[in-house]
């Protein structure tokens, strides 16, 4: 079962999107639960992270789609976000809030179906990806989506996650090899970062979770290229 949110101020387009989701589920046999919201404030009120995928209009009165997405990312770094928009140039701004894709109005079912299938593929990938850590006298099964970044100090690796930190002996190279199939990139010689968790990249730093990490001049070009590939959907894990 996938939990889908539709955030759209125009009732006719909300109904159209709901029907497209229903049609997709009927065609593919997927179980899809849909909840509709007339605006960003309604979505954010008492948000509990239950949604797997959010389809959101960018141009809405009051709190628009971009404002809603910025606040949403403070609450939920992993929900898959697809923008609905009249103008493609607005969708480019979606990279700042880790939007996977966008659908242009007027919305055809063919275009919707292709992008919706891709978005559900990302949801499924995030659900299933796990790694096993050998932490001293215990083994920890860790969802990849929960990892913020991994750093190394004095031959000890630390996996910084949403649930807490896990330390073990190892090298950064070993962590890179373990996570090679997932969207991680070097920000400096001593850490790799989960691109799905990056909130912002400045000239010399990046922000992940509540932490600001330094980005070296040497790593910055490859880091930006990896992030663009990930957000643009051309990274190898897709």
What does this protein structure show overall?
With 238 residues, the chain is α/β, with parallel strands linked by helices. Helix content is 33%, strand content 33%. The protein has 7 helices and 15 strands. The strands form 4 sheets. A 5-stranded parallel β-sheet has the order 2-1-3-4-5. Strands 10-9-8-12-11 form a 5-stranded antiparallel β-sheet. The two termini are 21 Å apart.
The tally of helices reads: 7
Give the averaged pLDDT, no decimals. Answer: 89
Q: Roughly what fraction of the amino acids lie in strands?
A: 25-35%
The backbone outline, from C-alpha atoms, is globular
Order of helices and strands: EHEHEHEHEHEEEEEHEEEEEH
Uncertain regions: pLDDT < 50 for 5+ in a row? 233-238
Q: Please compute the radius of gyration using only Cα atoms.
A: 19 Å
């Amino acid at each position: 079962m996938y939990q889908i949110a539709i955030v759209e101020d125009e009732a006719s387009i909300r109904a159209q999107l709901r029907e497209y989701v229903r049609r997709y589920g009927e065609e593919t046999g997927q179980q899809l639960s849909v909840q509709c919201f007339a605006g960003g404030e309604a979505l954010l009120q008492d948000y509990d992270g239950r949604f797997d995928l959010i389809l959101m209009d960018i141009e809405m009165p009051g709190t628009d789609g971009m404002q809603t997405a910025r606040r949403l990312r403070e609450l939920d770094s992993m929900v898959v976000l697809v923008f609905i928009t009249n103008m493609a140039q607005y969708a480019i701004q979606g990279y700042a809030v880790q939007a996977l894709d966008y659908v242009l109005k007027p919305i055809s079912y063919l275009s919707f179906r292709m992008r919706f299938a891709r978005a559900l593929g990302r949801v499924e990938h995030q659900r299933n990806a796990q790694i096993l850590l050998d932490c001293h006298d215990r083994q920890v099964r860790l969802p990849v989506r929960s990892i913020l970044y991994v750093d190394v100090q004095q031959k000890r690796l630390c996996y910084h996650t949403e649930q807490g930190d896990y330390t073990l002996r190892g090298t950064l190279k070993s962590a890179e090899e373990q996570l090679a199939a997932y969207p991680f990139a070097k920000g400096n010689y001593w850490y790799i970062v989960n691109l799905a968790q990056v909130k912002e990249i400045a000239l010399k730093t990046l922000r992940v979770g509540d932490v600001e990490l330094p980005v070296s001049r040497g790593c910055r070009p490859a880091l930006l290229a990896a992030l663009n590939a990930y957000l643009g959907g051309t990274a190898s894990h897709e």
